[in-house]
Specification:
By secondary structure, the chain is α/β, with parallel strands linked by helices. It is built from twelve helices and eight strands.
């Protein structure tokens, strides 16, 4: 089900009741074999409640599984949906006003790249320099002060960067021409326009005189061999836990002492 708290928190309860009524009306008027497709993927931050991850469904399937259609108690459905509303990317707060104002002219071209000197100064000033390379390359060597947001296939890039970066901060994208071009296009879709660019395959290409940094990487065998305390934890030798999930995510099994 779509989340109902994004328009206005004051309208959440009203919209949740309206959603319950409308989905039941629509399914009653449609053929049970009618096919359903997600607007942009089941299970996004725009939804609330259980999601299947499927690419399509039918009215018949939803009548059997969708909690808005299986829960006969409207008030209970409303309480449950609202109780399961989880955090969403911070940039969502800016989407409503942006949509109301309508699109303006957008320049998706890659700007003239910054010089190494200018980029180095931005790093020293603590500005957001976003390294688009994969995390392994970043760990081996990166510009000291840069942050890693791997572009990859682009599926998660805007969500994570848009969630973390303070709205309105100046951004410099560092990476290959193709990755920077793709990132500029994707960021424009969430209202982040006209980032600056630093082009190159790595930090030495982008800013030869800038300080670089790295951090060690290790596989599981190396982790067990080199870190006895971690080894005891991973082998269930101590009642330790390292939770990294949100409170809304399902629990995972963990080791316990026998």
């Amino acid at each position: 089900m779509g989340r109902t708290d994004l328009v206005d928190p004051a309208l959440t309860t009203e919209l949740t009741h309206a959603q319950y009524v409308s989905v039941r009306r629509l399914t009653s008027e449609a053929n049970e074999q009618a096919e359903l497709y997600p607007t942009h993927g089941f299970g996004s931050f725009c939804s609330s409640g259980p999601a299947t991850g499927a690419n399509s469904s039918t009215i018949e399937e939803q009548l059997q599984a969708n909690h808005a259609l299986t829960d006969e108690d409207e008030d209970h459905f409303v309480r449950e949906l609202i109780a399961n509303l989880s955090a969403y990317p911070t940039y969502y707060a800016h989407m409503g006003p942006a949509n109301e104002n309508g699109p303006g002219p957008v320049d998706l071209s890659v700007p003239e790249p910054l010089s190494g000197v200018e980029l180095t100064q931005r790093l020293r000033d603590g500005e957001w320099v976003v390294d688009l390379r994969d995390r392994v390359a970043f760990s081996k060597e990166h510009l000291d002060g840069a942050v890693s947001f791997e572009y990859g296939d682009g599926s998660s890039f805007t969500t994570f960067l848009g969630w973390v970066i303070p709205w309105g901060e100046r951004i410099t994208l560092a990476g290959t021409h193709d990755d920077v071009e793709s990132a500029i296009r994707d960021l424009s879709r969430i209202g982040i326009d006209s980032p600056d660019a630093a082009l190159g395959a790595g930090p030495r290409d982008i800013a030869p005189s800038a300080d670089v940094a790295a951090y060690p990487r290790v596989d599981w065998a190396g982790l067990l061999a080199e870190r006895p305390k971690v080894k005891r934890f991973l082998m269930c030798g101590a009642p330790m836990s390292l939770p990294v999930r949100t409170s809304r995510e399902p629990p995972i099994s963990r080791c316990t002492k026998s």
